[in-house]
Amino acid sequence: MNAIPPGRAQLRSRRVNLDTGRENVVVISRRSTALRPDLFRGFSRVELRSGSKTQLATVLLTDDDGLVGPDQLGMAEPAFRRFGQPAGTYIAVTPAPSPPSLDAVRAKIQGKTLEAPEIGAIVDDLVHYRYSDMEIAAFLVSSANFMTSGELIALTEAMARAGTQLRWNTKTVVDKHCIGGIPGNRTSMIVVPIVAAHGLTIPKTSSRAITSPAGTADTMEVLARVDLSVEAMKEVVASCNGCLAWGGHVNLSPADDILIGVERPLALDTHEQMVASIMSKKLAAGSTHLLIDLPVGPNAKLTTASQAMRLRKLFQFVGDRFGLVVEVVTTDGRQPIGRGIGPALEAQDVMAVLANEPQAPRDLREKSLRLAAHLLEHDPDLRGGTGYARASELLESGAALRQMVKIIEAQGPAPSASKIGTLTIDVCAERDGVVAAIDCLRLNRLARTAGAPLDKGAGIKLYKKIGDRVEQGEPLYRIHAFEPSAFDLAVGMAQLDSAYRIEPQAGAAP
Amino acid sequence: MNAIPPGRAQLRSRRVNLDTGRENVVVISRRSTALRPDLFRGFSRVELRSGSKTQLATVLLTDDDGLVGPDQLGMAEPAFRRFGQPAGTYIAVTPAPSPPSLDAVRAKIQGKTLEAPEIGAIVDDLVHYRYSDMEIAAFLVSSANFMTSGELIALTEAMARAGTQLRWNTKTVVDKHCIGGIPGNRTSMIVVPIVAAHGLTIPKTSSRAITSPAGTADTMEVLARVDLSVEAMKEVVASCNGCLAWGGHVNLSPADDILIGVERPLALDTHEQMVASIMSKKLAAGSTHLLIDLPVGPNAKLTTASQAMRLRKLFQFVGDRFGLVVEVVTTDGRQPIGRGIGPALEAQDVMAVLANEPQAPRDLREKSLRLAAHLLEHDPDLRGGTGYARASELLESGAALRQMVKIIEAQGPAPSASKIGTLTIDVCAERDGVVAAIDCLRLNRLARTAGAPLDKGAGIKLYKKIGDRVEQGEPLYRIHAFEPSAFDLAVGMAQLDSAYRIEPQAGAAP
Questions:
Q1: Which residue from A20, A64, A485 is facing B8, i.e. has the nearest CB?
Q2: Looking at the complex, does the CB of residue A355 fall below 8 Å from at least one CB of chain B?
């Protein structure tokens, strides 16, 4: 245990009801008995110490004794929770040096290639909340422009090792992942029951929406509980061969969660960081065979085939280095998949496909069968090339639906019943013609404005897809919401731009 | 005036006693009547609007109605002050897009060269507090690795135009600047009275210490008031030909103040950003002839002559582009200048030199005369090559001291009397020998630990310099402090490492 520097008083901790997100923040009195305020001009950082427990935090100052007195240390909620000591604990507070691994970030900024131990130290400091937001941004930007293949491998490995590492008793553990961006693309919820019904192990973890109207975890939560512990997840997989759990709850890649929190507001989205993020989670999840879905389209994350090829090669390169079999498929990312956008509306699509309802969206069904077929081919006992037929058989026979019901029952009931939003309006075609394009980004924003994913029943139900003929005044889609203010905003947004481009029929005069 | 989006309620502003530094921060209830909390997962940013007044801010959430109720907008002090509206104002709060100029930062990250209008937009957003800390870090890091000469010019110009621009009635306005890093290097306080006594205009603005134990503004503040308004500064210069004011108070380069706030914690210090920072301030200050002091030494900012040459060329290049005559001198940066480190101890050195006291530090006197000589040569009426003789004459005759007294009287009295720290200890040589090296960084840290610059009388008084012979037990320097805890810490630090390297006498056995 380190000694407290002589002459430094300790402060008594006190919770401050402030949610400061991923950053550890403490509030200190400008007249604090323990701190020299000259050390804290503007934002600065301190090290907190109690026994062997240490933590770095950013300092805010106050003159309000009611908030934090001179002998107190105000801890914002995340800092208090992470420090894990009761209120009233005496905590030594000293000016914090920046984390030593920041030297490696500075070297990278100057053009140096980083070694694996340096990257390991950065990830270790990240997951222990030793980096401020501006330091995280410096790391991300320093490697956004250029990252060697060695750095990519080292980053992936360090991130995979930083959190929970799941291991399974079967030789083959299949997994799928889509890089995202396409509304309604809930194939996992169909692929998992098909593959599990066949008998392959597929312990799927998914994310919640960050900037989209629904993540697979949000949509699955309409049907079942998704915040499973590692133990609960293992039990579900033991009994059902698969699960559909929220990855955030099992802490698969805490470094990734922290990096994403800065990547999103900065809208940084480089291929290398995407590959490190996805592959680290899959390695931590214990997958042996991974199928990657890369949608390509004018509003998708990938807009050209050459971008998709470069990304595919990065995934394969990293997979090869870690002995993870990676298969990459390029899919149609021009428009939403299925009809629903938003958790409850998407869950309806999924259950309609599993139940073989005649009105079930065909594109969601076909894409899911295609992806499931790729995964089934990893079964050595399946005759080569029969994956698609086997997947169709499992879906059409009702085996996939029964498997999904079994998974839902094993995961436990959904935290609350999800009705579809009761405030509705149909957005209609302004002219006769054919749907030529659908702006996925705009539909995502519209569904979010209507309340998704927090209001699970809010969102959009599509009636028309690309290539469909429409007449003037015919509904293109319906907006669903609960909250009047959100509904009004979404309606106004749709009136401004419906996100649909309708062109005169082919052959007709322009 | 922009309309408030339909359905968005407004919040009543309330001051929250929190100092959040340069970042605008607001606190919103998790049950706010006006905000959808799903828009604010983790840290996020909002736009505040009241009439035509708008401002971006980072959001913290709270559940504590006593702090901020559901219909209130808690504004941390800096955000409240900058918004400039009374508490209780109704303010519309909407999710904020990131500032448009951030697209240029993203392009720069991807390797694009920025155009002058893009850089102008970035600087404009910076000085209007539209960038979060992580966005500022992204900008700095994106241009830390590589900046074209065109980008450097554009950044310098945009920064120079973003704040106060001083203009003077004389054709020649001389100025000097040191890039810093050397303790005790207070030549400006001797150069300004010499040059002003000669009759040249030298309206000197200086900075306060950020990471050092004293800036020229801190040391001058021992003798006189330094937080002069633009009008007061002009009056002092009109009557005395020169002044020694704090640049921060006249807002000469607000963009630089904001960038430095992020550069320092990240310890980013690239030559291009240093040149843009210094030259923008000198252009804004209306200087026509600038002398730059580049100390070179093992612990200085520049460690080799080739680094100094590259930096000199950058200064000259930018000077030429803006018609500012730049002269660059390389100086000895191996050890502190003078004997005092810390505002009051340094002020003693300065006044001893000006008063021609026999014990005045010779190195400070010689360096100041040399720098003053360079500036005096800009007087067309002075015979070429006689600058040094003229500077010596002004110093030895007492004209410089009289000019300094006049400047001090014109600027007004110091805010408080500064005594020298009364807790003292002598740090002594542990062996016989010769002082071979002095670690400037360590002495800076030691003086800061003792309490400088906040305790103006705290710091270090040096007895020995490089080349001096010492005997075991002979004092190397004295530490001065007021506060026992700071004193204890500084003593402990000096005992660990005195910052002096003493080697056996030349010729003696090792």
A1: A485
A2: no
> How many domains does one find in chain B?
4
Beta bridge pairs of residue B204: B244
Report B:319-348 residues touching A (Cβ under 8 A): none
Beta bridge partners of A460: A341, A479
Residues of A noted as catalytic: 269
Domain with A360 in it: 174-249+279-411
Q: What is the ipTM of this complex?
A: 0.82
* Residue A266 counted as domain residue: no
- Quick one: CA dihedral B315, B317, B320, B322, positive or negative? negative
Q: Are B60 and B39 in contact (CB under 8 A)?
A: no
Cβ contacts of B109 on chain A, cutoff 8 Å: 141, 144-145, 268
Instruction: For residues B123 and B143, give the distance between their C-alpha atoms in angstroms, rounded to a whole number.
Output: 13
The amino acid at residue B269 is D
A43 to chain B: nearest residue by CA? B21
Residue B168 lies in a domain: no
Residue ranges in A5-132 assigned as alpha helix (H): 77-83, 102-109, 116-127
CB of A212 within 8 Å of any CB in chain B?
no
- The two structure tokens encoding residue B438: 């002095």
Would the CB atoms of A134 and B265 count as touching at under 8 Å? yes
Tokens of A276: 């490190």
| Record: contact A5-B489, CB cut-off 8 A | yes
> Are A391 and A467 in the same domain?
no
Q: pLDDT tens string for chain A (510 positions)?
A: 333 344 456 899 999 999 888 789 999 998 887 666 555 544 477 889 998 898 889 889 899 999 999 999 999 999 999 999 999 999 988 777 778 899 999 999 988 999 999 999 999 999 988 898 889 999 999 998 789 999 999 999 999 999 999 999 999 999 999 998 899 999 999 999 999 999 999 999 999 887 889 999 999 999 999 999 999 999 999 999 999 999 988 998 899 989 988 888 888 878 999 999 999 999 999 999 999 999 999 989 999 999 999 999 999 999 999 999 999 999 999 999 999 999 999 999 999 999 999 999 999 999 999 999 999 999 999 999 999 999 999 999 999 999 999 999 999 999 988 899 999 999 999 999 999 999 999 999 999 989 999 899 999 999 999 999 999 999 999 999 998 888 998 999 999 999 999 999 764 444
